[in-house]
Amino acid sequence: MKLISQEFLHNIAPQLDLLNTLGGGVTQPQVRVHKREQGVVIRVSAPSVRPETFHVVLNNNRLDVFAEYRPAADDQLVAPLFVQSFELPVELDLTRIDAVHEGRELRVRIPYQDPNTNHREINIRRR
């Protein structure tokens, strides 16, 4: 006999995360970083977090991935659900970052720079 249905658990998980956050805790997403031949893929799995609450912000070589709780779209009350920061190495092409939320997972793809674009001759000016 099943006492708790899968649908019940799916519906109550966001409220439990909110209560945890308001009580001083944060949501614990599962974060995995995969190095691939073409670049790096950061996978963030937080099943109880709605896709529209995720944010990905690049500041110099620091990438912040976070989610926030906002009761209504125009509400001023915002509570952080989680924050994860990554210091990105110089060999990544920060101009071509791509993020997609699919299923219950956020994937951020950052390709490596083309080694040929970092190599150029500098013109010497005469005065």
Automatic annotation (TrEMBL):
A Pfam family recorded for this sequence: HSP20
SUPFAM superfamilies documented for this protein: HSP20-like chaperones
Residue intervals of the SHSP domain: 22-127
Domain of life of the organism encoding this protein: Bacteria
Family, as annotated: Belongs to the small heat shock protein (HSP20) family.
Protein name as catalogued: Hsp20/alpha crystallin family protein
Lineage of producing organism: Bacteria, Pseudomonadati, Bacteroidota, Cytophagia, Cytophagales
